[in-house]
């Protein structure tokens, strides 16, 4: 059976920052309804590749494909206009604002005389959270009052609410405990079930192997492995990265 067409992809991306070759030949592909994990050692180029997909970095070579078409992005707003949004490692939430205000940050709904459509915003935020199975004590509380897992869930729900193509996640479980990490891993699957492509950077190999459909391994800016997650084990992934490291030494 042929592989489904990707909703977002990077093909043979190269990117240099001064004397540092961050990406040499990096590729990744995500289909609708698919969770793809991007893994590799620190410095492998994972975040650089994701930022290239978001238009934050302009590639020196290679191409970015969104919705089946090659695109040349000059900023994250252009990626968002094509239905791609991200959950950054720092979450990019405003801690003193409410859940609703955070979910509409940058997308405020305005009615006459500059007033916010607060009722409509609250209803849509509640619906978006409900569709993802996210339960919060209140949508009116400041985000700073939520647990780490709840804040992460809000960031995911916000990205999903404004996405129609793909959601990119950078280390979504990095600062969470085991139970909260399991919830976020389940949330990745729920997001994919809505028909979005999900690309996630993760160092949590055991958990991401269970959550992902496909694994892409980067090593020193190159894609060295693309495989169904079900065909891999944690030792497989570690051996791939260690093997390349030894080969180069």
TrEMBL record:
GO terms for molecular function: ATP binding; ATP hydrolysis activity. Keywords: ATP-binding, Nucleotide-binding. SUPFAM superfamilies: P-loop containing nucleoside triphosphate hydrolases. It comes from Pseudolysinimonas yzui. This is ABC transporter ATP-binding protein. Gene3D superfamilies: P-loop containing nucleotide triphosphate hydrolases (3.40.50.300). It comes from the Bacteria. Transmembrane segments: none annotated. Residues 8-245 form the ABC transporter domain. The keyword ATP-binding applies.
């Amino acid at each position: 059976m042929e592989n489904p067409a990707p909703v977002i992809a990077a093909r043979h991306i190269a990117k240099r920052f001064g004397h540092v070759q961050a990406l040499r030949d990096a590729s990744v592909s995500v289909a609708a309804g698919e969770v793809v994990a991007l893994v590799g050692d620190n410095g492998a180029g994972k975040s650089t590749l994701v930022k290239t997909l978001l238009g934050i970095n302009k590639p020196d070579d290679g191409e970015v494909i969104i919705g089946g078409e090659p695109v040349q992005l000059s900023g994250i707003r252009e990626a968002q206009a094509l239905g791609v949004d991200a959950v950054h490692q720092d979450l990019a939430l405003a801690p003193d604002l409410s859940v609703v205000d955070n979910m509409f940050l940058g997308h405020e709904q305005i009615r006459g005389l500059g007033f916010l459509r607060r009722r409509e915003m609250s209803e849509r935020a509640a619906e978006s959270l409900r569709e993802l199975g996210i339960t919060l004590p209140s949508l009116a509380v400041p985000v700073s009052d939520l647990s780490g897992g709840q804040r992460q869930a809000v960031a995911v729900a916000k990205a999903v609410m404004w996405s129609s193509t793909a959601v990119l996640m950078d280390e979504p479980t990095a600062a969470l405990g085991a139970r909260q990490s399991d919830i976020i891993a389940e949330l990745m699957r729920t997001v994919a079930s809505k028909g979005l492509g999900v690309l996630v950077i993760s160092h949590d190999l055991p958990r991401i192997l269970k959550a992902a459909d496909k694994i892409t391994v980067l090593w020193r800016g190159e894609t060295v492995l693309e495989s169904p997650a079900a065909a891999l084990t944690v030792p497989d992934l570690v051996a791939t990265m260690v093997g390349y490291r030894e080969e180069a030494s």
